[in-house]
Design brief:
140 residues; alpha+beta; Archease, Possible Chaperone, Chain: A, domain 1; five-stranded antiparallel sheet; 3 helices; 40% strand
Length: 140
């Protein structure tokens, strides 16, 4: 097993996000931090307000897409950024809590707007060492 982490990866037109963790839920949470990192330094986002999100989808890859799309929806409609995530499995999907705060342009210095998570580079799988990986390309 490895320590959970997130990273961005290169893509010719957009940006790839990747989360890795000992559980699928931790990989999804790490990918959510990577999603924030596309926009701003996640360390700049204070976990002041919590938003609950429930996603139902049987397929792991489709669940990951629904999770990221739900986060982007919450970011857009609430004008927020998120930096802390807790995800638990539920029957047929996940229940999550995302902590963040309203966007402060001066402090957060947003670099780009993420328009959508795409199916390009989409992968949710468990590797031979037992670690989960969740990744895709996001449209900026």
């Amino acid at each position: 097993m490895t320590t959970a982490y997130w990273e961005l990866f290169s893509h010719p037109a957009d940006i790839g996000i990747r989360g890795v963790g000992p559980t699928k839920e931790e990989a999804f949470a790490q990918a959510a931090i990577a999603l924030t990192a596309v926009i701003t330094d996640p360390e700049k986002v204070r976990p002041r307000e919590v938003v609950e999100i429930v996603c139902i989808e049987q397929d792991d890859e489709l669940l990951f897409m629904k999770w990221l799309s739900s986060l982007l929806y919450e970011m857009d409609t609430r004008g927020m950024l998120f930096s802390r995530f807790e995800i638990e499995p539920i029957e047929g999907g996940l229940r999550a809590r995302a902590w963040g705060e309203p966007v402060d342009v001066e402090r957060h210095e947003p670099a780009v707007e993420v328009k959508a998570a795409t199916y390009a580079g989409l992968k949710v799988k468990k590797d031979d060492a037992g670690n989960w990986l969740a990744q895709c390309i996001v449209d900026v």
